[in-house]
Automatic annotation (TrEMBL):
<keyword id="KW-0285">Flavoprotein</keyword>
<keyword id="KW-0288">FMN</keyword>
<feature type="region of interest" description="Disordered">
    <location>
        <begin position="40"/>
        <end position="68"/>
    </location>
</feature>
<keyword id="KW-0520">NAD</keyword>
<dbReference type="InterPro" id="IPR018517">
    <property type="entry name" value="tRNA_hU_synthase_CS"/>
</dbReference>
<protein>
    <recommendedName>
        <fullName>tRNA-dihydrouridine(16/17) synthase [NAD(P)(+)]</fullName>
        <ecNumber>1.3.1.88</ecNumber>
    </recommendedName>
</protein>
<keyword id="KW-0521">NADP</keyword>
<dbReference type="InterPro" id="IPR013785">
    <property type="entry name" value="Aldolase_TIM"/>
</dbReference>
<dbReference type="InterPro" id="IPR035587">
    <property type="entry name" value="DUS-like_FMN-bd"/>
</dbReference>
<feature type="domain" description="DUS-like FMN-binding">
    <location>
        <begin position="101"/>
        <end position="384"/>
    </location>
</feature>
<keyword id="KW-0819">tRNA processing</keyword>
<dbReference type="Pfam" id="PF01207">
    <property type="entry name" value="Dus"/>
</dbReference>
<comment type="similarity">
    <text>Belongs to the Dus family. Dus1 subfamily.</text>
</comment>
<keyword id="KW-0560">Oxidoreductase</keyword>
């Protein structure tokens, strides 16, 4: 048997799975609705996975997953005190990641994670995966969850409302990740209909049983990503309950379930600070992270152990390396310089990663719009040309970048002077060092 684990690209085709009737899960949204639409070209993988041949290809042994099992046996028999200790020892073993790519459906997929890692991200979440579909549908598994050896630390996120199904899904990914995460924050209508995400805030006993099930039976720790309640006291009790149930890492998005629009509502860092003070496990802050000054302020104000960023990373995957879009330089032009990098450069790097680690075209299309959005506003006919394509190719996308460059109006990413100096020191022969925590 060919050992795919020793190659750089891992898809769950290699994992034991229950044979199933194939269901065309053409996008997560559609998959969640259980109402598969006709197959769309954008849902096809951009290319066949490249198998990177190595000398070990004939070695049929399983990969060394020891690092992901550092918590040892499930925490079934541990006291609260020992669980907290183990939570910290695991977090420390991972290098206490501070700068983390948030989970994003259709957007925090492998090539995007790898791009962000190159530019300073210490860890990353997968997009939310639907636990039931994940257990039932091989095609969904293979398409929606891919990873590689360099894709660590990795947090695999699921939505779930059934403890047994959640455990089944989690067991399939535990050798490839450092946390299995439960999405307790999705506020969308689809989550209401499916009874998951932030709507589980109405059924805390179920949340408790989901976390307990995994904490007691899984070898990797369980993490949770929550939203805050309107009342601080409720948020604190919620966080304490999760810790008690066996959660080892808590990410707190400082907006309530009703505060859906991140641009309209500022995340409440005070609530995150209160949670951090109330629990003893590592806590991550989420919301309002648009550049590295925000990171510094957020860590100082909340006392959190790390931050997640979502929307801003989509536009600027080099955010954690200190690069900022023009929007965050206005009024402070003197202290910022052209960082010799722009969003088109980042898109080209992303596309190359997609050639190496194939993903559905719909994900690539979404990233093209985000990364080139500012350029498209100046040259809308290029966007129209893109939208007119029912089937994308890499050639077409590289051409778009060339076309925009020829049309002119380059929009640089900027670095603060202090960050330029640090960057110069950190650049290695391999490109950017994965260590930009010191740039602020
Ligand atoms: C495109 C997109 C997809 C998202 N998908 C998920 C998801 O799968 N799971 C999740 O917990 N949150 C998801 N979120 C929410 C983000 O993880 C994050 O909590 C939210 O955007 C606030 O962070 P920000 O202010 O840095 O954008 C998504 C956000 C965006 C923009």
């Amino acid at each position: 048997m060919k050992n795919l684990f020793s190659s750089q690209f891992i898809s769950l085709e290699t994992l034991p799975s229950t044979p199933l009737k194939p269901l065309m899960a053409s996008s997560l949204t559609h998959a969640l609705c259980q109402d598969p639409p006709p197959p769309h070209l954008d849902d096809l993988l951009c290319s066949k996975p490249q198998q990177h041949q190595t000398e070990d290809d004939n070695d049929t042994s399983l990969p060394d997953t020891s690092s992901s099992f550092c918590l040892g046996s499930p925490s079934r028999y541990l006291s609260g005190e020992s669980r907290v200790e183990r939570a910290w020892s695991h977090w420390t073993k991972l290098g206490r990641p501070k700068l983390i790519v948030a989970p994003m459906v259709d957007n925090s997929e492998l090539p995007f994670r790898m791009l962000c890692r190159k530019y300073g991200a210490d860890a990353a979440y997968t997009p939310m995966l639907h636990s039931r579909i994940f257990t039932e549908n091989e095609k969904y598994r293979n398409q929606e969850f891919t990873t590689c050896q360099e894709d660590r630390p990795l947090f695999v996120q699921f939505c779930a409302n059934n403890p047994d199904t959640f455990l089944d899904a989690a067991r399939r990914v535990e050798p490839y990740c450092d946390y299995v995460d439960i999405n307790l924050g999705c506020p969308q209508r689809i989550a209401r209909r499916g009874n998951y995400g932030a709507f589980l805030m109405d059924n805390l006993p179920l949340v408790k049983s989901l976390v307990e099930k995994l904490a007691c039976n899984l070898h990797v720790p369980v993490s949770c990503k929550i939203r805050v309640f309107p009342k601080l006291e409720d948020t604190i009790n919620y966080a304490k309950m999760l810790e008690e149930a066996g959660c080892s890492l808590l990410a707190v998005h400082g907006r309530t379930r009703d505060e859906k629009d991140g641009k309209k509502f500022r995340a409440d860092w005070k609530a995150i600070k209160a949670v951090k003070s109330a629990v003893r496990i590592p806590v991550l802050a989420n919301g309002n992270i648009r550049h590295m000054d925000d990171v510094q302020n957020c860590l100082e104000e909340t006392g959190a152990d790390g931050v997640l960023s979502a929307e801003s990373l989509l536009e600027n995957p080099a955010l954690f390396a200190g690069f900022r879009t023009a929007e965050w330089v206005i009024g402070d032009e003197k202290r910022n310089r052209d960082g010799n990098l722009d969003q088109a450069d980042l898109l080209v790097e992303y596309l190359k990663l997609c050639e190496k680690y194939p993903v559905p075209w719909r994900m690539i299309r979404a990233h093209v719009h985000k990364m080139l959005g500012d350029w498209f506003r100046i040259h809308p006919h290029v966007r129209e040309d893109l939208n007119a394509q029912s089937r994308l190719t890499f050639e077409f996308l590289y051409n778009i970048v060339d076309q925009l460059r020829e049309l002119g109006g380059r929009i640089p990413l900027y670095l603060k002077d202090v960050e330029v100096d640090t960057l110069a020191a950190e650049v290695t022969a391999n490109g950017l060092a994965n260590n930009f925590c010191n740039t602020w």
